[in-house]
Amino acid sequence: MSAPMQESVEHARTPKKAALASFMGSAVEYYDFFIFGSAAALIFPHVFFPDESAQASIMSLATFGFAYIARPIGAVFVGHFGDRIGRQKVLMFTLVMMGAATFIIGCIPDFNTIGWWAPAILVLCRLMQGLSAAGEQAGASSLTLEHAPDNRRSFFTSWTLTGTQGGQILAALVFIPVVALPDEIKYGIGWRIPFWLSAIVVLVTYFIRRSLHETPTFEAAKANNEIAKLPVGVLLKNHWRDVLRVICCAFIAAVSTVYGTLAIKYGSEVGNVDEGITLWLVVAGNAGALFTQPLFGTIADRIGRKPVFIYGAVGSAVFMPFYLLSMESGNMLLQFALSVLTFSCAYAAANAVWPSFYAEMFSAKVRFSGLAIGTQLGFLMAGFAPSIVAAMGGIQEGGWVATSLFTAAICAVAAVSALTARETYRVPTAELGKRQAVTV
After folding, report:
1. Which of 228, 314, 390, 393 would suit a FRET pair with 206, their CA atoms being 20 to 30 Å apart?
2. Could you read off the pLDDT of 225-251 as tens digits, one per residue?
């Protein structure tokens, strides 16, 4: 095979390779995030806090939210370098940081051993996870979008978020045997094993991502001397409206944390659903999304990002109360059916489309920064949603009402914000973000 032909074949493979690298990176991130969320709901109140009261549960769920404090700060830092030195280099950094923080969590002594240092170290590691996560999805989405053909950007970038489902499924499958262990093992070494196993996923992803080259879009900008010295300055001057829009649209991510963290707590405490079953409900919803999210991405390439995203927001608000009520029904078939409907058939639509929908609002010069800062500020709502709703009585008898109203409110904000966005599915990649920059 001649050199030009080999180069052409390699370029043709790049979108798939970029999608795989993004899938695996998101799988690592959400494996780590989901085992932390599950442990915060089911394990940490017994291990890292002085008692097992409702107050301990709220404090434990709050540690889940601390990563979301670090994420906006990390978004500025990581976004700056992602737009300055390239997407691929920064994604290697975020991968290693996430893996290290998760492994260390599995090594923290319990409260009885080191007292309040235990939750303090836990929060520190959680902040490290947040700094890493701030750049992971933004960088992966930017990288995949810039490698993808113009008419298939939503499909290829949907694999970034489909990786989150892969990570959550893997995490749940690892965590299910843990919750079935006797208490002395479960609260001893048992819960630590899923955190240590994250190292394997990180190593696999590291070798996949290391061989991925930088995007043609970024290389062209670099060759043409179009790299911004201070990307955040350009972002706030030319794209501030889009940043605000992304922040509000990103509220939709709170559906995922309510579904994956708060609902399992509600099911186990109010509905008397076995803890293992609550985790299997999450596995079922995420397994369905592995198939529906690429489908929603394909649909968005044909009819546009906005209608698919808005459908996902509205559908999530409609199905959530039925899903929570099913936890009290004692009907396992109904619980699994509503889990799949809520997550795979509703939320998955918005989840699949947002990487392309948000990224296409920005020019290549500030895409990483805009996507990172906008999403991470919006994700603050997702991070603290479990503890906010728990404080509102969401894990008490009848708490499904507060949880459902909260979910409906954040979905309404996301849907209305999406309505104000420009539809970009027919705009060539090279032209994305340019009209906004001229008119502001």
Report:
1. 228
2. 778 788 888 898 888 999 999 999 999
Of 28-32, 98-102, 315-319, the poorest mean pLDDT is in 28-32
Give the integer Cα–Cα distance in Å for 120 and 109. Answer: 11
Please write down the HEC assignment for all residues of the chain. CCHHHHHHHHHHHHHHHHHHHHHHHHHHHHHHHHHHHHHHHHCHHHHCCCCCCHHHHHHHHHHHHHHHHHHHHHHHHHHHHHHHCCHHHHHHHHHHHHHHHHHHHCCCCCHHHHCCHHHHHHHHHHHHHHHHHHHHHHHHHHHHHHHCCHHHHHHHHHHHHHHHHHHHHHHHHHHHHHHCCCHHHHHHHHCHHHHHHHHHHHHHHHHHHHCCCCCHHHHHHHHCCCCCCCHHHHHHHHCHHHHHHHHHHHHHHHHHHHHHHHHHHHHHHCCCCCHHHHHHHHHHHHHHHHHHHHHHHHHHHHHCHHHHHHHHHHHHHHHHHHHHHHCCCCCHHHHHHHHHHHHHHHHHHHHHHHHHHHHCCCCCCCHHHHHHHHHHHHHHHHHHHHHHHHHCCCCCCCCHHHHHHHHHHHHHHHHHHHHCCCCCCCCCHHHCCHHHHHHC
Instruction: Tell me the pLDDT tens digit for each residue of 369-408.
Output: 999 999 989 988 887 887 788 888 777 787 788 899 999 9
b or e along 379-414 (b: 16 or more beta carbons within 10 Å of the residue's beta carbon)?
Answer: bbbbbbbbbbbbeeebbeeebbebbbebbbebbebb
Q: How many CA atoms lie within 13 A of 300 on its CB side?
A: 36
- 51: Cβ–Cβ under 8 A, 6 or more apart, which residues? none
Instruction: Say how many C-beta atoms besides its own lie within 10 A of residue 123's C-beta.
Output: 17
* CA–CA separation, 150 and 34 (whole Å): 33
